[in-house]
Write a structure and sequence with these properties.
Helix content is about 35%, strand content about 30%. It is α+β, with helices and mostly antiparallel strands. The chain has a single domain, classed as 2,3-Dihydroxybiphenyl 1,2-Dioxygenase, domain 1, CATH 3.10.180.10.
Length: about 170
């Protein structure tokens, strides 16, 4: 009986000790993206055809079309790198798949350094440049950027602070 009391008391004590040491300012976000919705999760893969076929099978749907994206700016400079891209749209979120081709890109770096996996979370924002200035001031630089008829995007390297990159997307007016 005494063991049960101790086992209950120790986690309870630790919980109060940890919460008492936390500064309330530490728990508040330092920047508000003004959204609480993840638009998509992006996954970098070696074989986009096989991967999207497997994911489509998981959801009982046909594999999505695959297209070749435009070359982005990478590390502040134009690059010849591109990616094959495909999108699986689910009810609550989209899954983006990228297979790097050609020259250097954030996708290629990720694949070479970490292997296949989740590359970034994407968020639709307004006032993209304001958000970028904030992140850069917090040592989270833009590593890749691009866009098209729909608008523009920036990949923010937040791996040191958040463990993942984030993508900020802004629609054209």
């Amino acid at each position: 009986m005494k063991r049960t009391g101790i086992l209950f008391f120790v986690p309870l004590f630790m919980m109060f000790t940890v919460s008492a040491d936390m500064d309330p300012a530490d728990s508040e976000p330092s920047h508000d993206l003004e959204t609480r919705t993840v638009a998509h999760v992006a996954i970098v893969v070696r074989d986009i055809e096989a991967t999207t076929k497997a994911y489509a099978g998981l959801f009982g749907m046909e594999p999505p079309p695959i297209r070749l994206g435009k070359s982005p700016d990478y590390m502040g400079h134009p690059t010849e790198g591109k990616a094959k891209m495909a999108f699986i749209r689910l009810e609550n979120i989209s899954l983006e798949f990228f297979q790097p081709v050609g020259g250097p890109t954030a996708w290629r770096d990720f694949l070479e350094n970490r292997g296949e996996g989740v590359h970034h979370f994407g968020f639709w924002v307004e006032h993209l440049d304001d958000h970028v200035r904030y992140f850069e001031a917090e040592q989270m630089p833009v590593v890749q950027s691009g866009g098209g008829e729909w608008g523009q995007y920036r990949y923010i390297d937040a791996t040191g602070q958040l463990g993942i990159m984030i993508e900020l997307l802004e629609k054209k007016d």
